[in-house]
Design a protein that fits this description.
heterotrimer; A alpha/beta (340); B alpha/beta (353); C mainly alpha (112); A: 340 residues; alpha/beta; FAD/NAD(P)-binding domain; 2 domains; five-stranded parallel sheet; 20 strands; elongated; C: 112 residues; mainly alpha; Fumarate Reductase Iron-sulfur Protein, Chain B, domain 2; 6 helices; globular
């Protein structure tokens, strides 16, 4: 079999896993990453839902997998321009490097929604307002309580920040934030058992295996209170805490409370570079601004451009399990494409 | 509040404010309740800042109160506003300076509607022509008059005679800013600072030495509404919303409230009397209320104008505690110098005046 | 005299509410915590089909420390136990009602 080269753009879990699968099938892979290291958002996460597995464990495994003689990893590298010649793609990279690929896999993933855009929550204005990602960073520390300037007697999580929200043009659900909030609220309670923990949600979307069980554990074991209603605004009080307002929709009454910490569950948005990639490869973009696959049942990993494949959160918000499944499915589709 | 951070935020909501040559659209109710504010605005622009602004006697109500009370149809409102555009066009002005927040919201809403539905504009042009034989151009620049004061706040500061500072302690005065809902809640990008952290009044207060209080109900509506106030049985909604704000701001002991909306200024001033009479609660020190100023009155005090020339004697809540704090030398007998003898209202039972 | 009056707020002021009674009841019947407000209890409730009695909403109010509505409502329950039977999460609603009644009775004997 003649060796074929596959360019994979984006070295998060999807790109890494697909590289490993293709390498095992005997293909040559160039894994291109614009950041300084591989691993994507896993680098910023402490533990993963629902089993609370350390993100580092996954990172290590993925890194071992891509440490393969068939895989060349290029970090700090962006794709500037793409030229198509018959069934080959010529990718012009940073520093004018050029690679020729028989197939291309796009795994550019997502970015976290910029929570400062939801001004009513005061992210970037009030110190007591942080994001899910900020909290993961805080969880890395041994002593969580010591990370806050003032004692945190109460914390409130806001679901759907930047998701299901026409005001920021994100009509879709980011899927993973509900279970992340449940996970983080438990982790908070474990570290600081005296803190009261609230989750303000619009709907609880516990779609994956053991998610619903985790939700139940949060209620039953940890006494975390779930209030159905979106917080409409946070404002500073005299003692330096925040006043939050929501409707307790199940009680049919507006509600207010003060909280010492507000955690915004920032959703997923398409990566900034996707637009450039879509132009270069003539890829269709969906109404949700993520990439659009050829057929969302049978050809989910295929794009409308022959030889260009898609996997992971560049297609839609998804968890790591689905991302890895998609990466492997893409590897198989690429293998079929190159061997036929 | 982390002031620096919120300042960063409002910078993304900069809007264009014309620098000179304005056509002035007055408010209906301000001339009654805060009679000198609009006069002071004209004086500041014409005499202090040497700007050209035209105060047109042919200008009428924008019908905002009737419109928001569901009394008149939208076409009538649009035609009345179109007539104002026509008056302005005939005089050769392109920049509109609007005194009232509800007018500002309505004018903005109308222009925005016409952008999306040009057939509506064509219809109103026809109606105006049939009714008045007038034609108009769309204003080049639409600004609320508080935007214009904000725009010139540093120049006003350079000419200031007094600061928003407690003369005895040297501490900045603690100010509650209240933005009319129709200033930025309808079109956040048309307000300085947007809807959540509006900066238009805060900018003035900070430039002139004061300090703005960020209290929990800062963004809450004053409760004025339109039919909520106009129908007596509904007034409870209005007063209760104002009370919610007073209860929330009182622990910070604000020295005064400043607002850019005719309705808000009036109700935050008058309801303090009502609440005191109804349930005995007063929000200032020693049984007084919290003085409520319009931004023109605040600018006037900073520029050294006499408080009674600013019309502060027309306020329900006495402004003297504030004047004393600022170290303003005012004449007590002059307060009611223009009042007819034997025409003084009865003293309130609870609220100190 | 005024023709209108100052209205007391409909807002749940979580920090002002006395949650001690709630905590006491939660300790007696901890399963209340796992309610997901599906409303099956209310759908099947004997009393709820004839009166505005809404056991699902009552449980929410109890958890927020809003007892006023509760006091007038509790007596309507016929203790038939069907709510407990249908609950998908296994909340022991019948016992919850009994414990809530007991606690509120002990707390303020004039309640029921």
């Amino acid at each position: 079999m003649q060796t074929k080269t596959i360019a994979i753009i984006g070295a998060g879990p999807a790109g890494m896993e697909a590289s490993a699968s293709l390498a095992k099938l005997g293909h040559q892979v160039v894994l291109i990453e614009k950041k300084a290291s591989t691993g994507g958002h896993l680098n910023n996460w402490h533990h993963l839902f629902p089993d609370r597995r350390p993100a580092k464990e996954l990172l290590q495994k993925l890194k071992q997998e891509v440490n393969h003689s068939n895989i060349e990893v290029m970090v700090n590298t962006a794709v500037h321009e793409v030229k198509q010649n018959d069934y080959r793609y010529e990718l012009v990279l940073s520093e004018k490097n050029v690679i020729n690929a028989n197939a291309v896999l796009i795994t550019t993933g997502f970015e976290l929604f910029d929570a400062a855009k939801k001004e009513e929550y005061g992210y970037g204005i009030y110190n007591q307002v942080i994001t899910n990602s900020d909290l993961e960073q805080l969880f890395q520390a041994d002593n969580l309580a010591a990370q806050f300037k003032k004692p945190v007697k109460r914390v409130a999580f806001v679901h759907c920040v930047g998701s299901r929200d026409a005001k920021v043009n994100n009509h879709y659900c980011s899927k993973v934030c509900c279970v992340t909030a449940v996970k983080q609220s438990i982790e908070f309670k474990e570290r600081m058992p005296e803190t009261e923990v609230f989750c303000f949600y619009m709907d609880m979307r516990m779609f994956g295996p053991y998610y619903e069980e985790l939700y139940r554990e949060a209620q039953e074991k940890w006494g975390i209170v779930f209030i159905r209603g979106k917080i409409s605004e946070a404002s500073q009080t005299r003692d330096g805490s925040l006043q939050i307002k929501a409707e307790d929709t199940l009680a049919s009454k507006p509600l207010r409370m003060n909280t010492d910490l507000l955690v915004l569950m920032a959703g997923m948005v398409p990566a900034e570079g996707n637009e450039h990639i879509s132009r270069q490869f003539k890829l269709a973009i969906g109404d949700n601004r993520f990439f659009k696959s050829k057929d969302n049942h049978f050809d989910n990993q295929l794009s409308d451009t022959p030889g260009v494949f898609l996997a992971g959160a560049c297609l839609a918000p998804m968890n790591i399990t689905d991302t890895i499944s998609q990466a492997r499915a893409a590897a198989l589709r690429i293998h079929e494409y190159l061997t036929n | 509040m982390e002031t620096k951070n919120s300042t960063r935020l409002w910078k993304s909501y900069q809007k264009e404010i014309a620098d000179d040559h304005y056509y002035y659209a007055r408010s209906c109710i301000r001339q009654n309740f805060f009679p000198a504010s609009e006069k002071v605005f004209l004086k500041i622009l014409q005499e202090e800042l040497q700007k050209d602004i035209y105060d047109d006697p042919h200008h009428t109500t924008c019908t905002g109160i009737a419109y928001h009370s569901d009394i008149i149809p939208q076409e009538t409102t649009a035609t009345v506003i179109a007539r104002h555009f026509a008056l302005m066009t005939e005089l050769g002005y392109e920049n509109l300076a609007i005194s009232c927040v509800t007018s500002f919201g309505l004018y903005t809403e109308l222009l925005e509607t016409w952008k999306h539905f040009p057939e509506e504009e064509a219809k109103i042009r026809e109606l105006l022509w049939k009714a008045t034989r007038r034609e108009f151009s769309i204003p080049k620049n639409l600004a609320h008059s508080s935007d214009i004061i904000f725009h010139n706040r540093e120049e006003i500061n350079n000419k200031s005679k007094r600061r928003l500072v407690n003369a005895k302690t040297g501490q900045p005065l603690k100010v509650v800013d209240h933005i009319g809902c129709h200033y930025a809640k309808l079109f956040p990008e048309k307000g300085i600072g947007g809807a959540e952290f509006p900066y238009v009044l805060t900018g003035m207060v900070e430039s002139w030495g004061g300090q703005v209080i960020d209290y929990p109900e800062r963004r809450h509506c004053c409760g004025f509404g339109f039919r909520q106030y106009l129908v007596m049985a509904n007034r409870g909604y209005s007063v209760s919303n104002s009370k919610k704000k007073f209860d929330s701001m009182a622990p910070y002991e604000p020295d005064f409230i400043v607002s850019n909306c005719p309705g808000c200024s009036m109700f935050m001033d008058k309801w303090q009397y009502t609440i005191a009479e109804m349930e005995g609660t007063t929000y200032g020190k020693g049984g007084y209320g919290i003085p409520v100023l319009t931004y023109e009155e605040m600018a006037g005090l900073v520029l050294g104008y006499d408080p009674w020339d600013l019309g502060l004697q027309m306020h329900q809540v006495s402004v003297e505690p504030l004047l004393d704090k600022m170290g303003i030398d005012y004449s007590k007998p002059n307060k009611y110098k223009t009042q007819q003898p034997n025409s003084f209202p009865k003293k309130p039972l609870k609220l100190m005046v | 005299m005024w023709g209108y009056k100052i209205i007391t707020t409909n807002q749940i002021d979580y920090d002002k509410n006395n949650r001690a009674i709630r905590n006491k009841i939660l300790a007696l019947e901890p399963s209340l915590r796992i309610c997901i407000a599906c409303g099956a209890c209310t759908a099947t409730c004997t009393a709820g089909n004839l009166t505005p009695f809404n056991i699902r909403r009552m449980n929410v109010l109890l958890q927020r420390g809003e007892y006023d509505d509760l006091k007038s409502e509790l007596g309507k329950c016929m203790l038939c136990g069907k709510c407990t039977l249908v609950c998908p999460r296994g909340v022991n609603l019948r016992n919850l009602i009994l414990k809530t009644r007991e606690t509120l009775l002990n707390d303020e004997c004039h309640v029921l």
